[in-house]
Amino acid sequence: MTSIAGEATTPLALDRLIHERIRLAIVSALAVHPALSFNELKALLDTSDGNVSVHARKLEDAGYVACSKGFDGRIPRTEYRLTPAGRRALEQYLSHMEALIRRVGGQ
Known about the structure:
By secondary structure, the protein is an alpha+beta fold. The chain is 55% helix and 17% strand. Helix 2 crosses helix 4 and helix 3 packs across helix 4.
């Protein structure tokens, strides 16, 4: 049996940035919604303010997520969108996962 890591386009070459659970959830949520507010993301992912803030910042620093800040009336509103680079990264990540599943499944 050939090792999974031995292939040229190895399924193990996952994007470590979005491999983390909360970051993968953020990019996945933003892939199906045009934009989500900080509070919408927090509720959707059922996680803390700190988790959304820290992980969204890492995705923003990588150029995967765009963040805009404004006001909804007098209430501050932070909104996130998936960038084209973020969408490509998610698609590539999913392709790698599919390749890994095919490989370990023997297909």
